[in-house]
Amino acid sequence: MDPQQRLLLEVSWEAFERSGLTRERLYGSQTGVYVGICGHEYEALAMLHEADINAYSYLGTAHSAAIGRLSYWLGLKGPNFPVDTACSSSLVAVHLACQALRAGECSIALAAGVNTLLTPNFTIYFTKLGALSPDGRCKTFDASANGYVRGEGCGALVLKRLSDAQADGDTILAVIRGTAVNQDGRSQGLTAPNGPSQQAVIRQALARAGLKPADVDYVETHGTGT
What we know:
The protein contains 8 helices and 4 strands; from the N terminus they run H-H-E-H-H-E-H-E-H-E-H-H. The chain is α/β, with parallel strands linked by helices. It has a 4-stranded mixed β-sheet with strand order 2-1-3-4, sandwiched between helices.
């Protein structure tokens, strides 16, 4: 089984546990699962030799199965979505989870992201692409920036509509006021950023939150800027 699946099971359970949701309460609930997951490194290893492929090879590596396995073990009956938008996958998963809650598609949503680095192949590819920093540092907003740095890990958030969380007496760590997603469209290249498009998505998120730029006191950015 792909280590990404194992990490997702473990960390998601920890998130539900910290939120005070028991397995009994989750079982049969309209809980949606939205997971940013785009790595295929274990799948490449599992399918490397034809003689080693068995009935579990695909179920142990497919992204749809990673999310389905979590819902299977916990008995969750809400929407299930693996999300692959490259570096922004987990943030887009949060956006989709928020949209589903607002639309009434689920009463609870788990938004997560997972990534593991298991083979040198993809690092070699990104190096030849010129995407990786030769000195191993992601220098965001710096004139000397020369590429990004790959990382691995897993994180998960348990989300509810604010009114539901307050009614249930939940411990509320933060409120998501607004989210937005867009695409660059045409730019200098398929992997090149588009400044005006990035400005537009920030404006959309602020508008949906009912905020002005001057209302923002703290900005936590995404290293690669995608």
